[in-house]
Amino acid sequence: MDIQSLSQVSPIQTASVNKLQTPAQVTKDFGSFLSDALNQVNQAQVDSAILGDKFAAGEIESIDQVTVAGLKATNMLQMTLQVRNKVIESYQEIMRMSI
Q1: Residue 65: inside a domain, yes or no?
Q2: pTM of this prediction?
Q3: Does residue 27 belong to any structural domain of this protein?
Q4: Which compartments is it annotated to reside in (predicted)?
């Protein structure tokens, strides 16, 4: 066994304690994540409506684009509603807990 090759292995780097975030920073990050997600859902709805209008005006010949955009927007909205329902359900469950 060659011991020289073992000396070339770099030491394991540990996570720094200074990288921990405060609760306020985590809340801000989570809030911005939710805001971005809702903006994406809204943008998908707007894009679907625009494509529908363009198809009705005859500017788009392929209904495939309109259908895919509509289904994408519908799925995103349904997922958002399911996440909202789970959050409300979790909140209600926490409020029912006795201390």
Answers
A1: yes
A2: 0.67
A3: yes
A4: Bacterial flagellum basal body
